[in-house]
Amino acid sequence: MLLKVNSKGLYCAKADVYIDPWRPVKKALITHGHADHMRWGNQQYLCHTDTVPVLKVRLGADVVYQSVGYNEPVTINGVSFSFHPAGHILGSSQIRVEYKGEVWVVTGDYKLLPDGLSPEFEPVRCHHFITESTFGLPIYQFESPLTIFDDISNWWQENREQQRATVICCYSLGKAQSILNYFKETEERVFLHGAVANLNDAFRENGYHFIGSRIAADQKKEDFRQALIIAPPSALGTPWMRKFGDYRTAMCSGWMQLRGMRRRRGVDKGFVFSDHCDFNSLNAAVKMSEAENIYITHGYELQYAQWLREAYGLNAQIMKTLYNDTETEEL
Ligand SMILES: [Zn+2]
């Protein structure tokens, strides 16, 4: 086995490197900047160029790293590694691993539907395909994020007509930037929670310029009337929100498809927008990989592995990892 899970993470013994390790190691290849994939404490990091700003913001300026672009193979101890677009967030990559003709692909987190910002998922053929299964049940069927952004735009307009502020809660890395990118031509006011503003500032060094102003401490209530505010879900229900006066809240998450979830989160509106694959996308990605061996990680591993065995006759098995995308974070 070219890749195997051990107590520290997904390990390639031939090259002596880990992919998205959950315990500190010597050399870590990182699929993307979300906290459960890019952890603190590794001696060296190898990631895509657009993951570097996040690496520095979250792990400190003195982090030791090497960066690569997409489709630029790096050879370590005779094993070839290359990064390919995963369509999840800026910089997100599938990592292809090849040794003596045997090819593995680690997808990390990924989606097939375009969000207008993240480079689109590139199918990579392999023998062994490792996939997440966050939404690996048939009930999860998502529309294109671009359609959802149109819905957000309409809802914002309704709120503007009623002189209200619009607060969109979404993960500060990924969804925040793709929503801001969609609204880049707007002439209306857009404000950012500090967590979003910090990441946007970091992306500037890679040439990305996102709209929106960081909310100042002395910002007046009137400034927020009719404005769009982008904040992480953790801001929901906190006193921080009071400064907006009359406002409406929305949550962007794949879980919004579940009845009752919107009520549970106490928001006025739920948008079914995820940076992960829905059920059909997972199936499409598995087929495009042409792999016969499929390893299912975080999500509905049991159900999805069983589905792949029964529906497609694939050799699908569960791969236990510690990736844990919580609902309040990024989904
Ligand atoms: Zn992620």
From TrEMBL:
Gene3D superfamilies: Ribonuclease Z/Hydroxyacylglutathione hydrolase-like. Coiled coil: none annotated. GO terms for molecular function: exonuclease activity; ligase activity. The keyword DNA-binding does not apply. Its EC number is 3.1.-.-. It comes from the Bacteria. PANTHER family: BLL1145 PROTEIN (PTHR11203:SF49), CLEAVAGE AND POLYADENYLATION SPECIFICITY FACTOR FAMILY MEMBER (PTHR11203). This is Ligase-associated DNA damage response exonuclease. It comes from Paenimyroides ceti. The lineage of its organism: Bacteria, Pseudomonadati, Bacteroidota, Flavobacteriia, Flavobacteriales.
